[in-house]
Structures are given as C-alpha cells and as structure tokens.
From TrEMBL:
Keyword set includes Metal-binding: yes
Keywords in alphabetical order: Magnesium, Metal-binding, Methyltransferase, Transferase
Protein's recorded name: Uncharacterized protein
Alphabetized Pfam families for the sequence: Methyltransf_7
Length: 383
C-alpha cells in the first residue's frame, strides 16, 4: 500500500464528506483549547515577534481547518490588548498530503478573512494563509523558519505499513485482522511499535530543524491507556476489530476474497504516554512541557452543543459510522473496490449498534506540548 496515495479524508461537502462528519474532531480541538492558548501565549511573550509563523500539520479540510487558527489569533489578540501592543502579523501554513481537498480550503478563505475583519478589526490585513502540500514525514520548511507547529489527529497515522507482517514463507502473520487485536501475534505488535518509533523520531528531528530555538509545538493524537495492545479498551483498535469482523462475514458470504482481507494492514498506531515520552527523551531536541490524556465517547459532540437533541442507539451508531467512513473509506475502497463499500458500512453499522448498546466505545487522546531546546535568537526579541 502506498500510504500517501490513499490516506486522505473524503473531500467536498457531500453527506459523506469529512467536512460534514468531523464533529468528534471538533470536540478534540475544543478540549485542547486551554493548552493551545497556554502554549501560544508563552511563545509570543518570549518573542513579541512582529510576524508569527505558524504551521498546522494534517490540516484536512472543512470547518475544523480554521478552528485552531481562530483560537490562536483570538488568543494573541487578547494578549496584545493586555500589554497594550499592536498585534503581530500571522503567516500561517496549512499542510496536508497532496490528495487533501485544498480547493475547499481556498474557497473558504474569503469567509474566514471576513470573520476576522468583522470581529478583529484590521487583523485580516495582517493574516496570510498558504497551503503546503506534502508529507510531514519529510522536510516542509526552511531551517529555523517556524515559531509554532500545531497538529491535531494526524500523528497516529504511520508513514508506511510496518515491515515484517508476513512470514518468510509469505503467510500473513495477522491473518483475519486489518489492525492490532487481542489475537494479533506479539511480533506484529512489535513491528507496529517499531514503525511508530521510527516515524515519531524522524518527525521530531525534522521539526527541530524547521522551528526556531525556543519555538513551541502542540500535538494531539489518538493514544492508548497501556501498551497499545488491548483492543477492548482502546477505542479505535475496537473500531478496527469491528471492521475486521465485518470483512470476515463478507469473506464467508463470498463478497470479498479471504486473501484480500489477510493482505490489508492499516498504517495506524495509537501509542501510550510512556511510548511517546520515551521517543521524545531519546530524540532530545525538545523539552516536554505537558503530556496529558483525556477520554471521549465514540458519539461525543453528536449534538454539537445543542443539548436539546436526543439520539437513540441507532442515531449514535450512524454518527460513528459516518465519521469513520469519511476517514476510512479511501483506504478500504482502494483495497476492496468501491462497489462493496455500501454493504461493508451497513454491516459495520449493525456491529456498532451492538457495542453502543452495551456501553462500549471510548477513545483515549494524548496531548503533547513541547518547546525546542535552545535560546531564542536576538532578531526575534522585538518590541
């Protein structure tokens, strides 16, 4: 599997698009807002830079793309008011893989600028936004050019399917599963962990070259409570297990081939806090300021703040299936073909109903706040 070719959210603004099925991700961004405000305020008060250069890695498309940007601009504006300073200019880079729906982002820019002009008079003329297509597993920016990196719900995706998932004789080692489950052999768990450690180490090393000394980075990703091997307690592992069960049913009925199921391995890893901390300490370019966890229910934010709405188990299950489909269908369709997607997700829906009915379904989230080691350069101490 060429990960960069299939790892993209469903674009556009249709019923099944990511833009219309990302309320859970919005909830995650709002949960992290206090830490984002703390990090960007601390950075700005250390630099008082005339132009803050900010990069959002894995920005996707839809309303969530602009949510953390608004929070940053709003927070810096309030900070400047307290210090009686003129707000800085903002140079903001939105990064995602080339297959991302950047056209939808660019079409929405005018509305975002209008909102800034309306609510933050004059600041729209100081905000410059550009798209940067490319993988964050590679270099994206010049040396020491970025003040602040932000990434939400992207770093749990691996750069590639781990190596070593097939025996010397060519037999799939994780037969019948598309990801890690309680039946997955230890060697496969180890291969996934090794791939995450390589990817995260490289990510930190690359960003350490692109960020200014003293610059900040805030990362939010799916994680696990323990060692990442318990699919019954870590939400997205359970989702992948339910999809595997659905695919097995389709193999039994002849809708797909068993070899197709056995050859699919989702390039995804949800690390524990200890696994993240270990990589940061070994790589050593950054100081860990915060490493926190919080949990969300599968159907969190289904009402998007309207508490008068009530959803039964079928409504909650549909909500879960729609956002999983918006994220996962490009990968699944590239492997099994688009013709079986409706059947697959209908069957998956019934399994989600059963799990929601029994009270199962929790996501563990990790929030990582970092500062680049080293002193701020003199040219950034303006004001």
């Amino acid at each position: 599997m060429e990960v960069q070719q299939v790892l993209c959210m469903k674009g556009g603004d249709g019923e099944a698009s990511y833009a219309n099925n990302s309320l859970l991700q919005k909830k995650v961004i709002l949960e992290v807002k206090p830490i984002l405000e703390e990090s960007i305020t601390e950075l700005y008060c250390k630099t008082f830079s005339e132009c803050l250069k900010i990069a959002d890695l894995g920005c996707s498309s839809g309303p969530n793309t602009f949510l953390p940007l608004w929070e940053i601009i709003d927070c810096i504006g309030a900070t400047c008011s307290r210090f009686s300073r003129e707000p800085p200019a903002f140079q903001i880079f939105l990064n995602d893989l080339p297959q991302n729906d950047f056209n939808a982002i660019f079409e929405s820019l005018a509305r975002f600028y209008e909102r800034i002009e309306k609510e933050k008079e004059g600041m729209s003329r100081q905000c410059f936004i550009a798209g940067v297509p490319g993988s964050f597993h590679r270099r994206l920016f010049p040396d020491r050019s970025i003040h602040f990196f932000h990434s939400s719900y992207s770093l749990h995706w691996l750069s590639q399917v781990p190596e070593g998932l097939v025996s010397e004789s060519g037999t799939p080692l994780n037969k019948g599963n598309i990801h890690l489950t309680v039946t997955t052999p230890p060697s496969v768990h180890k291969a996934y962990l090794n791939q995450f450690e390589r990817d995260f180490t490289a990510f930190l090393r690359l960003r350490s070259q692109e960020i200014i000394p003293g610059g900040h980075m805030l990362l939010t990703l799916l994680g696990s409570d323990g060692n990442g091997q318990n699919s019954s307690t870590d939400g997205l592992y359970k989702i992948c297990e339910l999809i595997s069960m659905t695919l097995k049913d389709m193999v039994t009925e002849g809708s797909i081939q068993e070899s197709e199921l056995d050859s699919l391995n989702i390039p995804l890893f949800m690390p524990s806090p200890e696994q993240v901390r270990s990589v940061i300490q070994r790589e050593s370019s950054f100081t860990l300021l915060r490493l926190e966890t919080f949990k969300l229910d599968w159907a969190d934010n289904i009402d998007d703040g309207n508490k008068d709405q009530v959803f039964d188990k079928y409504g909650r299950a549909k909500y879960v299936v729609m956002y999983i489909r918006a994220v996962g269908e490009p990968i699944l369709a590239s492997h099994f073909g688009g013709a079986v997607m409706d059947s697959l997700f209908h069957r998956f829906f019934m399994k989600v109903v059963e799990n929601i009915e029994t009270g199962k379904g929790i996501y563990t989230n990790l929030v990582i706040s970092l500062s680049r080691n080293g002193s701020l350069p003199t040219m950034d101490r303006k004001g």
